[in-house]
Amino acid sequence: MLEHLSPSSVHTFFQCPHKFYINKIEGIPDRTQYAMTVFGTAMHKALDIYSRVFDIRVSVDVLTETLKDLYGQVTVNTDMTECQLTQMGTIALTEFAMKFGATLVPVETEFPITIKRPNKIDIKTIIDYLDEDKIIDYKLGKSWFNTSNPYDYELNMFTYAYAYKEHFGKWPKLYIIRAKYRQKDRQTIFGDWVVDELNLQEDKAEDYFYFYDTVERAIKDGFFPRTLDKKFCGYCSYKGSTCAQTLPYINKEVQNVL
Ligand code: SF4
User: Fold this and answer.
1) Which residues contact 194 (CB under 8 A, 6 or more apart)?
2) Distance, CA of 133 to CA of 168 (rounded, Å)
3) CB atoms within 10 A of CB 12
4) CA 38 to centroid of chain Cα atoms
5) CA of 237, closest atom in ligand 1
6) Most exposed of 51, 135, 158, 209 (fewest Cβ within 10 Å)?
7) pLDDT of residue 258
8) Residue with the nearest Cα to atom 3 of ligand 1?
9) Nearest to 18 by CA among 217, 234, 238
10) Residue 128 CA, ligand 1 centroid: distance in Å
11) pTM of the full predicted structure?
12) Which pLDDT belongs to residue 150?
């Protein structure tokens, strides 16, 4: 039984319920990642270190080491090399230090938080930057805003805000600090840092639990169809034999109905 859900597991489910099944229920690791996802993971670690020691050299070392480790562990789907990502990250970290310096002093970074849900699967997430009255989320790897996928960034931010309120008894201010990229000579390069303040409608916040409830219902029903949107299959590490051979989990009641 799945012990907890997270915004990213919900994101996987809404891309492809069958991928969610293979990864989260069967426990088969996802060994393929987009370059910008790998970049985002490494930059999160580098920014976490920066906000503790405010030393750009230390954070660049963390970025370099993390990218090296990740390129050794997963297949990275893209034409961007480890070297290009290291260069782009070094520029981004230098610009970050110049723009924000030591003004961002968090109470906590990489703060794990759990939303307990009686008779339901708990939700676990990690807050990038936590202060006395605000949460900052770094958006580095993927497109940070996609209105056709509201469960993506909105679900993330709602989950942080709701968890914060559960923990501290008040709603936080919400900010996104995002890396803005541009294309040059068909290469993705770092452009600038952008700060956005988000307005969370508190009276609607609980509506976002709908997405977690939908995943939970699928788990109870054992219903994990393969996605109809084949663009998600392009870079899926389960494409081919794993996807074809993995039987969707179907529980006994559903089997009886069938
Ligand atoms: S290959 Fe496509 S259908 Fe199969 S698990 Fe991956 S995303 Fe889903």
Assistant:
1) 177, 178, 180
2) 10
3) 20
4) 11
5) 6
6) 209
7) 41
8) 226
9) 238
10) 30
11) 0.82
12) 52
